[in-house]
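In this section we walk through a basic example: taking a raw amino acid sequence and producing a predicted 3D structure, encoded as discrete structure tokens. The instruction is simple. Fold the sequence below.
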Amino acid sequence: MNLFNDDRLMEVCERFLNNNGSIGIDGVSGELFKKNARREFDIIQRKTANNTYDFSLYKEKLILKSAHSLPRQISIATKRDQLVLKILQEEIMQAFPEVFDVPPIKTKINNVKEIILSKKHDAFLKIDVKEFYPSINHKNLMLFLKTRISEGVILSLIEKAITQTTVNIALPSNERIHYSNPCGVPQGLSISTVLSEVYLHGVDLTHQSENGYKYYRFVDDVLVLCNQVDAKEIQHKIVNNINKLDLKVHEFFDGSEKSSSGLLKNGVQFLGYYFKGEKITVRPSSIHKIYEGINRVFLKHHKYAEKKDVKKLYRKLNLKISGCVVDGKNYGWLNYFSDINDKTLLFKLDCHVKRGFKRFSAPYNKEKIKTFARSYHEINFSKNTSYIPEFMTKNYGKDKDLAFTDEESTFTDEESAFTDEESTFTDEEYTFTDEDYTGNGDYTLTDKVSTFIKESDLKTPSAGVIVKAIISKNKNSSSEDGLSEETTSESSNAQTLEYLLGHKGDFLTKKDIAELMKDIDFY
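The resulting token sequence is shown next.
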């Protein structure tokens, strides 16, 4: 079996080695790699065939999550290695199909929600694996892989990939030591997540099949819904199984954000959500993220206020509020947290947006600014809506050279079937004043309706207008990073476009997507 034949290399190259991704230690970009593809393919084929292929050192990138924790080390491979690693990832997933036949994260959240609301259990366990990726035992991992993978070249390449060293580019060449990582899987590689899933799959199987409690895991976070009388025994079994893999868990204590146990009536956090009784809301740190995201939009507009580009401010805010759907995939804070039933939070956010206009002396137009409350309704109860922009890239995401062609504007009050008059979400039901602001990012609201959203609270609108977009190519020169920070007209460089946005003449760039993802803090 020729894993690295021309057809497969070319297909993977076109799908995953985009021109704007992270660049490895050799400084070769995706664009340059593609220009030299024939030579690069020959090197991969020759060296993998005679088992002499070596991964380059990984370039280190440090991500600081907070001032109270050590930075997370991300390993960036060269483009050539990224191509090889992507093929290895596909082979691992084919060898362990049941490991990756799992529901999406939103389905997992909905399952947790249903179980908690059913009141079948009264307690929870939260178990956090300590230093998960850096602690994965290479010997154990390779034994697991050998149960399904017999090709020596695949196993050899995987072993080399996980033992290669990650270095700071400032480190002198003569001090760099190759293959000096004796334990752990480097984070940031395409094989990192699949290897970690294979490593813990046995633990998952053991506890997902147990009766009497529900077991959910996302990476190194485990949530168990159980009865209080059984909690200690279940905790001991799960921790013991994890310890057998040479992994450790954070110590248990009440109120810990890592490992803890308690009663569901007192509340539990999981994947950014906060569940307490019948209330389903967003955990405080994730709420803070969206407040910060809204503030960034206003601050950036204020910085360049001399341009007086109010249209751009509205576009950025509307995208921040409603999110969007691209190639069937949801983006945005509210799209992720659409399973909440905490109506008060939605109106606090809308209040914060309104306050932003006042603080930064920007003109507020109620007809042109979307709201979190209405966006929530459209996401949850409208199958076809023009309120949440939805697009398809050419070849469903495979072709990145996109341009917007002139179509009717998709966001108008006349097109939408859901109006303020039809909804219980109206400004008249709430008072938004400076006195409501508490000074710490929170607001008090005069609420005339119940605290939580129920489907019966809302009128189901008729089918809305589906967003229409046509994609065409326009070959102009690109910016240095491949994506201009702002793209505001049809004449702009098409190579800077990743997606389309649902307003006539506007675009959605990779930086827009990155900004949306920045708001979501669930892990």
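Looking at the output, two observations stand out. Residues 284-303 form the longest helix (20 residues). The mean pLDDT is 79. In the next section we compare this with other chains.
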